[in-house]
Structures are given as structure tokens and as C-alpha cells.
């Protein structure tokens, strides 16, 4: 059973499904204090046998919902009709109001790539208040703090993507190290590197960076 939500949930995690490519397997639901999904994601959860009773809320405008499952779980719907915001953004606002600050997101990539870029932009808006980690079939990715240590990543793909720039970037443990260099989306980015050590250190002085960590060891 999930722990109860009481006050500010600084160590508890939220599991959020949004309307990208569905995960092939679901994570351990018992490790989350709150589980939610956006309007569109409700469909693929239902089709893939997700235990819908585990959902704490479903947010969206629900213009595409109909059927017995929607009626059964109607009390968990949070109607968010604002067309100036995506369902992802509106879900994060609800999560933030509930006092959580750590969110694992599934369904953030795949399909139409403008959605993927839009989801990154939404995550950027919340990066000071929410620690958001995306998971997909290939990797996990997140906005990195200025000082970051990755463990148990030897032979994993590591990509550093400036958003839109990061200055004085230093890395240790990558096959192609960076020594106080600048990454910029219009000039030089740091994708398709890999870890040659179990521990990788990444530091940068200013700017923003998305770090991608491959799910599998490179062969």
C-alpha cells in the first residue's frame, strides 16, 4: 500500500504517465507515494492492463473519454480545460500543489517529436522546484544540477545536451572528456559519448543541460 501524503513530501516520489509512447513494462508501483496520469495516457494504461485503481488522479479536459472505466474512476478526474497549457504542465502544477518535488515521468518521448521537445520545455519551467526524471525505452534523462555524479554507468551511453548553452563544462569518467568547454545548441553539443568508468562527474558553471543515460551497456 502506498504511504499517505502528509505535508511537504520532500523525499517521496510521484509516478506520472503522459501521452507519449507507452512503457513496455511498468516500474515498481510500491516505490511511489502518488501515481497519476494525463488524459491521453489513461487510454494506454487501460489497454495495457495497468491497475487503474492505483491511480490517485487523472488530469485533462477529457474530451475523448467515454466508457465504463471512466465512469468507475470519475471521482479521480481533475478537470483542467486550460488550452494554453499542455496536460503535462497541468499535471505538474497539481503535483506541486500537493507538496511533492520528485517526479518520474513515463511517456515523455516517442511518436511526434514536437511533443517531446514541448515536454522538455515544460520540464525546464519547473526545474527549480521539481526534480523531474524522464524514462523511455532507450534512456533516462533530466535537467542536471551544476555538479552531478553518476554511479554504475560504465559502458553506458552518456549524452550532454545544452539547453540552449552550458559554460565551463568539465567531465571525468567519459571516453571523450570535456575540460572547461562551452556547449551550445547552435555550435557544439555533447551527445553520443559514453562512460569508461563506473563513476562519471559532470560540472558546469552557468546555463542548463539535459543529461541522457542509456539503459543498456554498449556492445
From TrEMBL:
Pinpoint the Thiamin pyrophosphokinase thiamin-binding domain residues: 139-210
Protein's UniProt keywords contain S-adenosyl-L-methionine: no
Q: Which UniProt keywords apply?
A: ATP-binding, Kinase, Nucleotide-binding, Transferase
A Pfam family name for this chain? TPK_catalytic
Q: What EC number is given for this enzyme? A: 2.7.6.2
Domain of life, per lineage: Bacteria
Classification via NCBIfam families: thi_PPkinase
Protein known as: Thiamine diphosphokinase
Upper lineage ranks? Bacteria, Pseudomonadati, Bacteroidota, Flavobacteriia, Flavobacteriales
Name of the encoding gene? thiN
